């Protein structure tokens, strides 16, 4: 598993596009994700770039 690399400054200002909840960076199974604390959507992080598109998000289990 790799260590997620997104600057703390960026994490402090981005929010979930679906519900405006706080996002937490996690190292998922094979890929890094930003997981919303509000709605639970998980957004992929590709090559260190957060992909904050609702259509690309993984729904909560």
List the defining traits of the structure above.
four-stranded antiparallel sheet, 4 strands, N-terminal domain of TfIIb, 61 residues, mainly beta, single chain, 10% helix
Structure characterization notes:
Strands 1-2-3-4 form a four-stranded antiparallel β-sheet, with no helix packed on it. A hairpin with a 2-residue loop joins β3 and β4. Helix content is 10%, strand content 28%. The protein is mainly beta and 61 residues long. It starts with 7 loop residues before the first helix and ends in an 11-residue tail after the last strand. It is globular. The model has no long low-confidence stretch (mean pLDDT 88).
Q: Could you say what the CATH architecture is?
A: Single Sheet
Helix content: under 10%
CATH topology: N-terminal domain of TfIIb
Strand order of the largest sheet: 1-2-3-4
- DSSP strand (E) fraction? 25-35%
Largest sheet: 4 strands, antiparallel
Enumerate how many helices there are, as a single number: 1
Mean of all residue-level pLDDT scores = 88
Distance between the amino and carboxyl termini? 21 Å
Q: H/E element string?
A: HEEEE
Given as residue ranges, the uncertain stretches (5+ residues, pLDDT < 50) are none
Instruction: Count structural domains.
Output: 1
Structural class: mainly beta
Instruction: Evaluate the radius of gyration.
Output: 10 Å
- Total strands: the figure is 4
Explain the layout of strands and helices:
Blueprint: H1 8-13, E1 23-27, E2 32-36, E3 42-46, E4 49-50
Antiparallel strand pairs: 1-2, 2-3, 3-4
């Amino acid at each position: 598993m790799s260590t997620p690399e997104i600057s703390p400054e960026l994490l402090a200002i981005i929010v979930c596009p679906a519900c405006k909840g706080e996002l937490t960076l996690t190292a998922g199974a094979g890929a890094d994700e930003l997981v919303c604390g509000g709605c639970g959507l998980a957004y992929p992080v590709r090559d260190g770039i957060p992909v904050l598109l609702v259509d690309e998000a993984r729904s909560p289990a």
